[in-house]
């Protein structure tokens, strides 16, 4: 299906409208509340805990954001609930709490990240988490297999591929992934100027871009894409 207009209507705050982890840290409830207040769409990342609970966290490990060793996928939900992000005082949020925070006020664009040992349960768990959500929501991943499996869940949300690359073998791989029934692509802004992206736009496939951090990047995104995923500045200014 064509991606809905809301997907490209509003700038998308990368991991929420944080301030480069000075006071408001990425992928925390305060960052999402700040995006909602500003009227921006929200991008966030979802991983599963050891016991299969979806949490919002980007990195493979906890070191950069939490200053400790370990991975989300090796810890129980009860353990993760106690871990704060940086010196913010905010804990790593459960995905269910992010959905309650957004509650359909602004669009939510969710990037899915699967642990190596979570193949069989990942997609059903994510599908169960979002089924019944009443609001603009999109799901995407670098992992084409995740997205192919999600098309079989018959969810009422647009599905997309997160991608990069500027060689023909990249484009062939991405075309194959999109052919599974995906609705949009989220593409690295430095790789937008090519016939592959131009062809997708001609065919009506929505192009959102990542990650825009300065005016030059924004100009590229505006020229070749339909909407940007941004961080580090306020697009209203």
Automatic annotation (TrEMBL):
PANTHER family, sorted: GLYCEROPHOSPHODIESTER PHOSPHODIESTERASE, CYTOPLASMIC, GLYCEROPHOSPHORYL DIESTER PHOSPHODIESTERASE
Chain ranges passing through the membrane: none
A Gene Ontology BP annotation from the UniProt entry: lipid metabolic process
Top-level lineage group: Bacteria
Species this protein is from: Martelella mediterranea
GP-PDE domain ranges (all copies): 9-237
Pfam families per record: GDPD
Protein name: Glycerophosphoryl diester phosphodiesterase
InterPro entries with a match to the protein in the record: GP_PDE_dom (IPR030395), PLC-like_Pdiesterase_TIM-brl (IPR017946)
GO molecular function: phosphoric diester hydrolase activity
Coiled-coil annotated residue ranges, if any: none
């Amino acid at each position: 299906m064509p991606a809905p207009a809301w997907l490209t209507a509003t700038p998308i705050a990368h991991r929420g409208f944080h301030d480069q982890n000075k006071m408001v840290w990425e992928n925390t409830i305060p960052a999402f509340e700040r995006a909602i207040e500003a009227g921006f769409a929200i991008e966030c990342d979802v991983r599963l805990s050891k016991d299969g609970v979806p949490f919002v966290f980007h990195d493979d490990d906890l070191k950069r954001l939490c200053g400790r060793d370990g991975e989300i996928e090796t810890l129980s939900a009860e353990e993760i609930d106690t871990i704060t992000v940086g010196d913010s005082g905010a804990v790593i949020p459960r995905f269910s709490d992010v959905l309650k925070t957004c509650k359909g006020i602004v669009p939510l664009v969710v990037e899915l990240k699967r642990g190596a040992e979570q193949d069989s349960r990942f997609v059903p768990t994510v599908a169960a988490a979002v089924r019944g959500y009443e609001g603009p929501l999109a799901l995407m991943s670098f992992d084409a297999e995740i997205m192919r499996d999600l098309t079989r869940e018959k969810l009422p949300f647009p599905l997309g591929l997160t991608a990069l690359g500027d060689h023909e073998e990249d484009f062939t791989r991405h075309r194959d992934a999109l052919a599974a029934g995906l609705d949009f692509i989220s593409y690295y802004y430095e790789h937008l100027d090519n016939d592959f992206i131009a062809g997708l736009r001609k065919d009506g496939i929505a192009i959102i871009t990542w990650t825009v951090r300065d005016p030059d990047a924004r100009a590229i995104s505006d020229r070749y894409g339909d909407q940007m995923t941004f961080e580090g500045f306020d697009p209203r200014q």
